[in-house]
Amino acid sequence: MSSPDLIHNAEEMARYRVTGMDCPSCAAKIEKAVRSVGVEAVKVSTATQVMTLHVSDPGVQLPEVERAVAGIGYRLDRLDGLNVDHEGDLDDLPKDLSHITPAYRRALWIVILLNVGYGVIEMVGGFISGSQALKADALDFLGDGLITFLGVLAIGWSLVWRARSAMIQGLFLGALGLGVLANTAYRVLVQQQPEAGLMGLFAVIALVVNVVAVLPLLPHRTGDANVRAVWLFSRNDAIGNAAVVVAAGLVAWTGTAWPDLVVAAIIAGLFLHSSSSIIRDARADLREVA
Q1: Per CATH, the architecture of 102-289 is what?
Q2: What mean pLDDT comes out for the span 268-277?
Q3: How does it sit in the membrane (predicted)?
Q4: Domain extents in the chain
Q5: Which fold has domain 4-94?
Q6: Which of 6, 35, 92, 201 is in Cβ range 3.0-4.6 Å of 79 for a Cys bridge?
């Protein structure tokens, strides 16, 4: 029986830079779409936003892969190959980066500032109101902003440097997530009812910020991920914001901190899962290019 390594050696490896991906669930969706057209050997790295696959008939299979991924709302840029730069790192050269215009970069910077800026504000709001759910939701804003920030900086970077940056980012976000989760566990023992009014106010503003963050990207949706992917990101973030709003209402209704703590634990847990995926992918990418 042939081993997977021998099978891969008999096939041709192809790499794509993926645009429009901001979480491990996105990577899983892309891998599922690629497997649906018969390509089983595929790996999408959340850390470097690079998809690697092995195909036996590139001329037939790669166009099918590209159509399948575009159909679920992500853009693929074929990488010509890997070359060693003057520092000994591996560079990947995309065939087409024409969609990376100055206007598009400005739109991304607006998204970064909105996400990181409000993430910091919401984190402060969490401390003022005593809400763990607000702190956990703030992590989502910070995570989205930092991932987009890495995406802007990574345009033209080598694979190894994108992996190193993602590793640092994943460790930083993981530490924040663990801090929020530990604080939530402490509040279970020493309960303090959060200020429901402030908690709800910050969560409603978060919903507005999510919608506003989508608007700068809409004019560029044909050159990047399409509008479906943009709204999927907004929808997923809005679900977290809505959960905090509901928790605030339940805190006011029940007069206990339990709704806040439950929502905080769920959001922080999902966030830590994303952070661990980034770290795992970054380590795998670094091993691959070592």
Answers
A1: Up-down Bundle (1.20)
A2: 81
A3: Multi-pass membrane protein
A4: 4-94, 102-289
A5: Alpha-Beta Plaits (3.30.70)
A6: 92
